[in-house]
Amino acid sequence: MTTLLFPNLTAKSVSNESMMVLWYQPWVETTHSDAKLQRIWLAAANEALRHELDFITAVAPIYSKLTCCMLGFEGPQTLSSMAICYHNSAEDMTQATFNRIRKVSELSEDLRERIWSEL
To answer: What residue ranges do the domains of the chain occupy?
Structure first.
């Protein structure tokens, strides 16, 4: 009796390929954007580490110069030569710190711009 009411309805088997197509497209879209955001975050973390390495590279010679002054490798130390050495080292350290702060502040803005452009 059911065949008389619905003569054209037959049960179709669902193939694995059609299920993959239905599942794969939304999965790719969500993971693709997640992967892009992850890549952006990792690039920002890489830049932050590079800036820290630049800061350490800039500070190492300053400490070396200060050590040479303190140990008297450049000749006998007087109060005025020590003060000049400390003053020069402080200026160099201040400049390196300002550069570090500038780069870190730019990194935050750059990360936000990258994320918004991706979204």
So the answer is: 34-118
